[in-house]
Write a structure and sequence with these properties.
alpha/beta; four-stranded antiparallel beta sheet; 16 helices; 39% helix; 17% strand; binds pyridoxal-5'-phosphate; binds zinc ion
Length: 409
């Protein structure tokens, strides 16, 4: 498989020791071992000039090409990835306990989650490398998005999911024609199995924690938010965390947006995990990273062994952000409050950030006078079974006016 770093990519650098390389296949640090994940570093000059070109570019995530790891437009998928809407949500702000709130609805991507940003980069690079197939393990969204974007480019995909992946996500995989391996185990075991199988095959590994290029797609959510809000960028950006790749990308995108001059300074990022799967919250508090079993109704962040701990912890620390864990009960509360107060329906992991903001305000981490952007990372229709537990019930009636009026009285 061939792959080359374009000239605007300076190097890949180890997040632990800083080792630099221009070998595009060096995905973990030869000195630090598997914990030494690599980060893509770009030349400064193109980024500093990026804003000049933005007005003439299509509104999708590829508009930030100065900080994306390839140049070949011919490989871009035909489906629109990115430029998802941002809306003001004053009634949600009231519930969260902050002065102002905006919601970025990343459930409006092609397969209905933020993961499309990363999968699209993965598919472009897989095609560039001439791989015969792309593979990943996923709690569900990375899987369905890989299947979707790969289908749009005619690239075969093999996807490993844990047996508890919600049915709508599995339906997406099958509909998009992926080869689906459903593993009778949790996500952490599924991830190990996928890595072991992929290592023996001529497949392109889309697992975001290992493949250094995928975070580059995720970060575009922040570049967009910065461009959409400009100097109205809120004080905090809240996002939920499983493996840690998304939050690492969110911070990196905000940093690049600030360097490019899209925003004055980097906002603080609130990283939110479910209480039953919060090793990164613990690590931020104690300095000890101790993976363990995971339990949460928010399947997408039900991760006991986060695969990108250092990138995530370093990123949140760099922006003077904060970590917080939230209970399943508070996620369920947010699952109804966010849509009713903003018009945006997110899956449990998609709105866990809101539960986090509310808890952070109550804990005095976020000031009541602050403004907040909530990244809704996955669409609510991804997990209707959980939504129906808290949404209430329809009023069942016979088909007559009297029956309706009686039932409504
Ligand atoms: C909807 C949603 N939100 C948040 C996350 C967390 O992202 P990460 O695992 O990169 O931390 C995921 C990951 O699957 C997700 O699907
Ligand atoms: Zn290293």
């Amino acid at each position: 498989m061939t792959l080359a770093l374009p000239s605007h990519v300076e190097c890949l650098a180890c997040v632990l020791c800083g080792l630099q390389t221009r070998d595009p296949w060096c995905w973990t640090c030869p000195d630090c071992g598997p914990a030494g994940r690599m980060d893509v570093r770009y030349a400064d000059a193109p980024l500093l000039n990026m804003t000049k070109h933005l007005a003439s570019r299509p509104r999708d995530q590829w508009r930030y090409r100065e900080v994306l790891p390839f140049t070949d437009d011919a490989l871009l998928p035909p489906v629109q990835v990115g430029w998802t809407p941002v809306s003001r949500a004053p009634r949600l702000a009231e519930w969260l306990g902050v002065r102002e709130a905006v919601v970025k609805d990343d459930g409006r991507n092609p397969s209905a989650s933020l993961k499309d940003r990363a999968s699209a980069v993965g598919v472009v690079l897989a095609l560039q490398a001439g791989s015969e197939r792309i593979a990943c393990a996923s709690t569900g969204n990375a899987a369905s998005s890989t299947a979707c974007i790969a289908a749009s480019m005619g690239l075969p995909a093999t996807i490993f999911v844990p047996h508890r992946a919600p049915a709508p996500k599995v339906a997406q995989l099958l509909i998009f024609g992926a080869q689906v391996v459903r593993v009778q185990a949790d996500y952490d075991t599924t991830w190990e199995l996928c890595a072991a199988v992929t290592a023996q095959q001529p497949w392109f590994d889309r697992n975001c924690a290992v493949n250094p290029y995928l975070v580059e797609g995720k970060k575009t959510v922040s570049l967009e938010l910065a461009e959409q809000l400009g100097q109205d960028m809120p004080d905090w950006v809240a996002v939920s965390v499983g493996d840690g790749c998304t939050v690492a990308g969110v911070v990196k995108g905000l940093e690049e947006a600030a360097r490019a001059g899209l925003i004055r300074s980097v906002p603080r990022v609130l990283a939110v995990q479910a209480e039953g799967a919060a090793p990164l919250v613990q690590a931020a508090k104690t300095g000890l990273f101790e993976p363990g079993p995971a339990q949460s109704i928010a399947d997408s962040i039900c991760v006991g062994t986060p695969r990108n701990p250092h990138k995530a912890l370093q990123a949140v620390a760099r922006c003077d952000g904060a970590w917080i864990a939230v209970s399943d009960a508070s996620i369920l509360e947010a699952l109804v409050e966010v849509p009713r107060r903003s018009g945006v329906f997110g899956e449990p992991a998609g709105i866990a950030g809101a539960a986090g903001v509310r808890a952070a305000v109550q804990a005095g981490i976020i000031d009541a006078g602050a403004s907040v952007a909530l990244l809704v990372t996955g669409n609510g229709l991804k997990d209707t079974a959980t939504a129906l537990q808290v949404a209430g019930s329809p009023i069942d009636v016979e088909p007559s006016v009297d029956a309706v009026l009686t039932a409504l009285a």
